[in-house]
Amino acid sequence: MIQKIKAMSRPKKIILSIVAALLALILIVIITVFAIWHNEISTVASMKLVRERNDDHLDGAVYTMHVKGDFYLNDFVEQGGVKNDDELIDFVTKKITKGLIDMSISDPEIGCSSFTAKTESGDVLFGRNYDFSKTNTCIVFTEKNEGRHATISTVDLQFLGMDVDKNVEGLMNKITCLAATYAPLDGINDAGVSCGIYMTYQGGEETIPTDQNTDKPDFTSTTLLRLILDYADNVEEAVEIASSYDLHDSAKTSYHYMVADASGRSVILEWIAGTDSTDNDGGKRKLKVTYNDNDSHLGELEGSTDYQVITNFIIEPGYYEGSAAEDKKGFDRYEKIYEELSKTNGIVNNEEAAMDILAAVGRRTWKNDDGNGCTVHSVVYNLTDKTMMWIPNENFDDTDAVFTFSFDAE
Questions:
Q1: If phi over 0 gives left and psi between -120 and 50 gives alpha, with beta otherwise, what is residue 299?
Q2: How far from 113 is each of 16, 193, 209, 323, 357, CA to CA, in Å?
Q3: Is 251 left (phi over 0), alpha (psi -120 to 50) or beta?
């Protein structure tokens, strides 16, 4: 009887050994996956829906995402950046998903407005409207790393391939959103530097992207903004970054940028060659830098004020022959913002008052001169306090739609 029992236990031991080996293998796989992707796993897990969509109002869903780790930006800089979206996608795919998951990044055709101002107490503000069409949005938080700043930025998720008519669902879609760090449209860092990107429609009848090709390293439209947010302590350092790279716009579009810092200084960065009708070779363009305290060549109003405004036309005098207003996309919004700011010499009561100026040129109420259907988000960055007030889809009267963020709170 004893021998029989022993004989029966032998296959059980074999089965138990196999199960133990499988469990050990599974444990090894789990440990390996976590060791390789622990930052990415934490980042995906942090993605949170903070406002539901409202398709009747062209409102997409709004998410927040807290990025763990350095998302390989130092590697991006060390390799000399990238020259186009395909190279950027290749870099992000290899680094973040180790080549296992395809990703996509594209640049938008957008019409936007920004301005700088100060509060009555002296805080420096940077306001921005992002005008486009219904989309899902993510507010992305990145951590401070050695030599780099913590940042908060806004990303349009349709440029990562997300369906504008659906919420971001499923693990694969959320993994794709890891690429959001390389596609910011505006943001602020913990040094009080803020930056935004705006389309310029350069090249006469056909928009021609900037495509510089010298011996400098390279960046694309949104990666320039990312480098400024992560590495710039002030406006001067932002200009130095922009000057040190070749810019490669993509998606057959062209852009300029506004950068501001907590000192109250701001700058507009533009890449131009000749006039709008002759500026049809993106490789010939050179960086033109216009500071808020050195812009009297733009006009009496600009020269007599310290605040600065940007929309969707090149501000450099003479770029449009005859200075025809009809050739300047967003010139009506530019005039309206200056009109509002000049009433109080660029001094507003608070962030809410700055938001009122953004509301005055929102897509739903303002003459739609660029074909964009709505203002996707409006944000006022306080560069002194390093805080932000963010409102989606022109829901200015809905208190539940007002989001405030700060680095201390994160």
A1: left
A2: 67, 18, 20, 20, 10
A3: left
For the full predicted model, state whether its pTM sits above 0.85: yes
String of DSSP letters for 110-157: -EEEEEEEEETT--EEEEEEEEE-S--EEEEEE--BTTB--EEEEEEG
Integer Cα distance of 248 and 241 in angstroms: 14
What CATH code would you report for 48-406? Answer: 3.60.60.10
* pLDDT tens-digit map of 58-85: 999 999 999 999 899 999 999 999 998 8
Secondary structure letter of residue 216 according to DSSP? S
Residue 99 gets the label, from left (phi > 0), alpha (psi -120 to 50) or beta, of left
- Residue, of 188 and 105, whose pLDDT is higher: 188
Q: Domain coordinates of the chain in residue numbers?
A: 48-406
C-alpha distances out from residue 242 to 88, 209, 234, 383, Å: 18, 16, 13, 20
